[in-house]
Amino acid sequence: MDEFKGVTVVRKANVYFEGKVTSRTILFEDGSKKTLGIMLPGEYEFNTEYKELMEILSGELEVLIGGNSEWKAIKGGESFEVPEKSKFRMNVMKVTDYCCSFLK
Q1: Alpha-carbon separation of residue 49 from 6, 39, 65, 73, 102 (angstroms)
Q2: Domains (ranges, CATH) in the chain?
Q3: Does the keyword DNA repair apply (predicted)?
Q4: Which 3 state secondary structure label does DSSP give 69?
Q5: For residues 28 and 9, what is the distance between their CA atoms, to the nearest angstrom?
Q6: What is the pLDDT of residues 39-94, one digit of tens each?
Q7: Are 101 and 34 in contact (CB under 8 A)?
Q8: Residue 90: count of CB within 10 angstroms of its CB
Q9: Cα–Cα distance, 27 to 32 (Å, whole number)
Q10: Cβ(57)–Cβ(51) under 8 Å?
């Protein structure tokens, strides 16, 4: 899907890691939520409340999810899921454009 229709966009940006990761929240009529963002090269760790689907629109990174010991390479056009109430680490190699869906 290249665009979302009938949504509300939260104007205030989500800014993490001194501006190296930013996103905007998109709210849908059915109550679902997504964020659209950009990550600059670097290493980041996030905690999840809900299950998340991370769609990588462009860029290149490696991800380490939960207690796994093996990094997984991800590039533009690919995605990965993160379980609820867990954490994941990302090593971003190239500027990365992403869409994160919060799944309940």
Answers
A1: 25, 20, 14, 24, 9
A2: 7-103 (2.60.120.10)
A3: no
A4: coil
A5: 9
A6: 999 999 999 999 999 999 999 999 999 888 899 999 999 999 999 999 999 999 99
A7: yes
A8: 24
A9: 6
A10: no
